[in-house]
Amino acid sequence: MEQRKGPRLPIQMGMGIGIDLGSAYTRIAVFDGCHYGCSAMPSYMAFTNLGVLVGETARKQATENPTQLVRVLHLMLPQSI
């Protein structure tokens, strides 16, 4: 293994966020330098008279209001950025 020459810089721990827009679940992970956490919710979005619903609440709308439901959110995003 080749060794680097020059001044050593201190390692700094920053904040990191990861988002996975999956077909079944949307997940987010957060790291703030010391702690980490993650969460997941069903990949559903529904449009109702009350506003926009996401996750489990939107999934429950599927039988009542199927025409206003979006299930594959990641397919609506551009393929290249």
From TrEMBL:
SUPFAM superfamilies in UniProt: Actin-like ATPase domain
Keywords for this protein: ATP-binding, Nucleotide-binding
InterPro entries registered for this protein in UniProt: ATPase_NBD, Hsp_70_fam
Gene Ontology MF terms: ATP binding; ATP-dependent protein folding chaperone
Annotated family: Belongs to the heat shock protein 70 family.
Protein name as it appears in the record: Chaperone protein DnaK
Source species: Carex littledalei
Taxonomic path: Eukaryota, Viridiplantae, Streptophyta, Embryophyta, Tracheophyta
